[in-house]
Amino acid sequence: MYIIVGLGNPTREYENTRHNVGFEVIDALAGQEGIRVLEKKFKAVLGKGFVAGEPAILARPQTYMNLSGESVRELTSFYKVDEKSQLIIVSDDVNLELGQIRIRKKGSAGGHNGLKNIIAALGHEEFIRVRMGVGQKPERMDLANFVLGHFTQSERKAMDEAEAEAAEAIRVIVKEGPDAAMNRFNKKNA
Questions:
Q1: Fold type of domain 2-186
Q2: Selected catalytic residue, list 19, 112, 124, 150
Q3: pTM passes above 0.90
Q4: What is the rounded distance in angstroms from the CA atom of residue 50 to the CA atom of residue 170?
Q5: How far apart are CA 93 and CA 10, in angstroms?
């Protein structure tokens, strides 16, 4: 079984913001796989089904970004998955170009508070992550204002395409493994 978690912030005010692309990838994957993400459990909204033929839980933590680890810890503890190979975290990344996808099997939080909290909750950095590029913040803009800001119309179109591609990357991770997905998707927009 896989646990696939998209990071973001709950409530309408954060919908369609850069920080919520993890939620959006979960929604794209759920739509493509016919999974309804409606159940409230483990401090998340989740759905159960199959991704690339494998049993999976899709989750959107409702703890707000900085406490995402609470939900992830509850999910991984209850379902007893191998966090190194069966946990996939989708997050935004301001260090990648808009729409760029970067898959990693482990690594630091890179300044991302949601990832930082997950690493603290799990006690290690070894979990698969799909990082979604949201572009770099303008020079004089506050980082929080940037990541909590909305996409322009042209950026939104690029992100919709990238989110569909990220959903496909997750299917490849599940079906063929993270190395195959890294080879296929990390080079694409590099």
A1: Rossmann fold (3.40.50)
A2: 19
A3: yes
A4: 12
A5: 18
Parallel, antiparallel, or unpaired for β 44-51 and 39-41?
antiparallel
Beta-carbon contacts of 29 under 8 Å, excluding residues fewer than 6 positions away, are: 4, 35, 51, 58, 166, 167, 170, 171
Rounded to 5°, the CA angle 115-92-53 comes to 85
CB 47 within 8 A of CB 34: no
DSSP state of 150: B
pLDDT at 190: 45
- Give pLDDT tens digits for 47-77: 999 999 999 999 999 999 999 999 999 999 9
* Whole-Å CA distances, 136 to 9, 62, 140: 20, 26, 11
- Return the structure tokens found at 179: 């190395």
DSSP-assigned beta bridge partners for residue 64: none
Residue 38, SS3? Answer: coil
| The two structure tokens encoding residue 129 | 């992550």
Extract the tokens encoding 41. Answer: 């459990």
Buried b (16+ CB within 10 A) or exposed e, 76-109: beeeebebeebbbbbbbbbebebbbbbbbbeeeb
The CA distance from 187 to 180, in Å, is 11
Query: Using CA atoms, how far apart are residues 8 and 68, in angstroms rounded to an integer?
Result: 8
Tell me whether residue 19 is one of the annotated catalytic residues: yes
